[in-house]
Specification:
The chain has helices at 62-90, 94-141; strands at residues 2-4, 11-13, 22-24, 31-33, 45-46. By secondary structure, it is mainly α. It has 2 domains: 2-46, no CATH class; 62-141. Helix 1 (62-90) packs antiparallel against helix 2. The radius of gyration is 28 Å and the shape is rod-shaped.
Length: 142
């Protein structure tokens, strides 16, 4: 089925199930209701216009951003501890260097943990967001 934007005459190919829905034209950004139009002589553009009442894109949750920041701070501490270990080795303080290298390992593990937690929180939040979007579409269908 074909529909045409009444404002700019952009032609779209749509499924019959979307008949009567209001959308925003991708070309001119004006709202219009999907209606059946005669077959155009030019090939139609694929319909990629968003419904007017659609939610915005997924945004990373604050907790995920905080974990990322903590991961970068841990990486900075890792480099600081690593530099300290090198200095102690050069000064032939092997006992101090061993202790500092131990701290290097702990700080590196902490950085990896923070980045991992950030990705887990983001994935859970994105799944919840997508689920809400699907439920909303199902409610609109019925």
């Amino acid at each position: 089925m074909h529909t045409t934007c009444p404002h700019c005459k952009q032609v779209y190919e749509v499924e019959p199930q979307y008949l009567g829905r209001r959308i925003e034209c991708q070309k001119c950004k004006q709202e219009f209701t999907i209606e059946n139009s005669p077959v155009p002589s030019v090939p139609p553009a694929p319909l990629q216009a968003k419904p007017v009442n659609a939610e915005e894109k997924f945004k990373a949750p604050l907790l995920s951003i905080i974990f990322n920041i903590l991961g970068y701070v841990s990486l900075a501490l890792f480099l600081f501890c690593l530099a300290g270990s090198v200095i102690l080795i050069v000064q032939r303080d092997f006992a101090g260097a061993g202790t500092t290298l131990y701290a290097v390992g702990i700080v590196l593990l902490n950085a990896l943990l923070m980045f991992g937690l950030s990705q887990v929180v983001r994935a859970i939040s994105e799944t919840a967001f997508n689920t809400r979007q699907l439920l909303k579409l199902q409610r609109e269908k019925s």
